[in-house]
Amino acid sequence: MNSTFRYGVLVMAAVGALVAGPMMTGLALADNKHVAEAIEHAKEAVAHGKQGHGDALVKHAEGALHHAEAAQKDVKDPHLDEGVKHLKEAVEHGKAGHVEVATKHAEGAVTHLSEVK
User: Fold this and answer.
1) What digits encode the pLDDT tens for the residues 17-63?
2) Which is nearest to 67 in space by CA: 44, 34, 99, 18?
3) Angle CA(82)–CA(88)–CA(91) in degrees, nearest 5?
4) How far apart are CA 57 and CA 49, in angstroms?
5) 61, 46 in Cβ contact below 8 A?
6) Which of 70, 56, 31, 72 has its CA nearest to residue 106?
7) How far is residue 5's CA from residue 102's CA, in Å, rounded to a whole number?
8) What's the whole-number average pLDDT of the chain?
9) CA geometry: angle at 98 spanning 92 and 104, to 5°?
10) Residues 6+ apart with CB under 8 A from 72
């Protein structure tokens, strides 16, 4: 009977780990939702910049900036701060018509935002 009890405890622990693991991972992803959105918008900004679409680059860089700044309220990471700086530069240069420079800054933002933990 003692071995049956141990087996039951082991099974319950395994089931608990299988259920709790994805739940905890989901919580971690939920915390970084703004970072994920910022990365997606920054990638779109880069894609449009490479096509010479300055207005679309600015639109997506502003979207990325909005999400990155929202993430800064909960996440303290130097890569996030650098990503925000690059996004601000991308918006500024994009509005000035410097699409190539804005694209480089958007690429820098993607690089840094992808490193946020």
Assistant:
1) 555 544 443 434 445 899 999 999 999 999 999 999 999 999 999 99
2) 34
3) 140
4) 5
5) no
6) 56
7) 64
8) 85
9) 80
10) 80, 81, 84
